[in-house]
Write a structure and sequence with these properties.
about 20% strand; Beta-Lactamase; 4-stranded antiparallel sheet; alpha+beta; 6-stranded antiparallel sheet; Alpha-Beta Plaits
């Protein structure tokens, strides 16, 4: 096994990483949604946002395995940060650097790795967005570009404040976050000839809640609605608050029939909340659903507009 070398600017690189105050912090949705999307888009068992500390690789987000960190000596990402381009290892068993690595020979059984360095604004490679598989595989050029695009979003999150792509009240994606993530999910479905559906939600009587009960109660209603959304839909769905009381859910691989089943399940969760909770309000909503079938050339903008129109028709 060949352990990774250290970059020439190692001291400055580690100091930059530590100044971000991100190491050993709690999971954050803004990174978790990226690893969920990467795992789904590339159909791999594991996707990770990894940060390379002085003697370890620490996982800010890890979807697929319950691991927080490993030693830097065995890390694939330690090799990836030595350059500016993606590091792709199609078959670890045939690569002298990794064939006897414990991550390959052990329980995890990594046989494929692809990682894109996360380059901070001053030029330091702080970590990677990477995907892992337990069998050898190849990535085509379009897939490599997709992985780079997701890594660029992760770079932006390292550089930007929490509010850049996350709604501060509900902690799901805001409009900007949706505009970054949803096109990739949509493209994955259309290229893979998968159906995709978008649900556009609008809370009913929300202004009345604010006017009669106050904005603090209105905020709690938005939080309750968000929690029911995230618990009712899949982790891989892109869920966002795109306006004051407007929410969207992009469901990858879901036909209109499947989407409507999910909407009914969500409606049941709303009914249960209204019956069992002692909140001074009831949650009610209007929703419009638009779907693109397999082999469709429909784009996200058209899908969003169609779902919005159907929601408006439902409301009135």
């Amino acid at each position: 096994m060949q352990g990774p070398k250290k970059p020439n600017n190692e001291a400055q690189r580690v100091e930059t990483l530590k100044r971000l105050n991100i190491l050993d912090t709690k999971p954050e949705e803004r990174f978790d949604r990226l690893t969920r999307l990467a795992r789904r888009c590339f159909d791999v068992p594991v996707a990770v946002v990894s940060l390379i500390d002085s003697d370890r690789q620490w996982f800010k987000s890890c979807d697929g395995i319950d691991v927080k960190e490993t030693s830097r000596e065995v890390s694939f990402c330690g090799h990836a940060i030595l350059g500016n381009k993606p590091l792709i290892v199609p078959n670890t068993l045939k690569d002298q650097r990794f064939c006897d690595n414990p991550l390959v020979t052990g329980e995890l059984g990594v046989q494929f790795y692809a990682g894109v360095p996360l380059i901070y604004q001053n030029g330091y490679q702080l970590g990677t967005l990477c995907i892992l598989d337990t069998k050898p595989r190849q990535l085509n050029q379009e897939q490599i570009i997709d992985l780079i695009d997701l890594a660029k979003i992760a770079e932006n999150e390292l550089s930007a404040s929490l509010t850049a792509t996350t709604d501060t009240l509900t902690h799901i994606s805001n409009r900007r976050g949706f505009d970054l993530l949803a096109p990739k999910a949509m493209e994955h479905c259309l290229v893979g000839r998968l159906a995709v559906s978008l649900a556009f939600f609008d809370l009913d009587h929300f202004k009345q809640v604010n006017d009669t009960l106050g904005h603090a109660v209105g905020d709690q209603a938005l939080i309750d609605f968000t929690q029911l959304l995230t618990s009712s839909f899949r982790d891989s769905d892109v869920i966002a608050r795109i306006g004051g009381d407007e929410f969207v859910v992009l469901m990858s691989g879901a036909s209109e029939k499947v989407a409507n089943v999910a909407i009914r399940r969500f409606n049941e969760a709303i009914d249960a909340f209204n019956q069992n909770q002692e909140a001074p309000y009831k949650l009610e909503f209007s929703v419009g659903v638009a779907s693109a079938k397999e082999k469709s050339d429909m784009n996200l903008e058209v899908l969003l507009k169609m779902a919005d129109q159907r929601m408006f028709k439902s409301k009135h």
